[in-house]
Write a structure and sequence with these properties.
42 residues; elongated; 1 helix
Length: 42
């Protein structure tokens, strides 16, 4: 498994394709996020 394997996320990134292992749209975090998970402001 690696860059040449189209069934893995790394392989899909290498090939530039999308599918079950690498969805085209990222899953959005919904609900109440804890303060530690939010972006820190300096």
């Amino acid at each position: 498994m690696g860059r040449g394997d189209k069934k893995t996320k790394k392989g899909k990134i290498f090939k530039g394709s999308f599918g079950k292992s690498r969805p085209a749209t990222e899953k959005k975090i919904t609900g109440n996020a804890p303060a530690a998970a939010t972006k820190k402001e300096a």
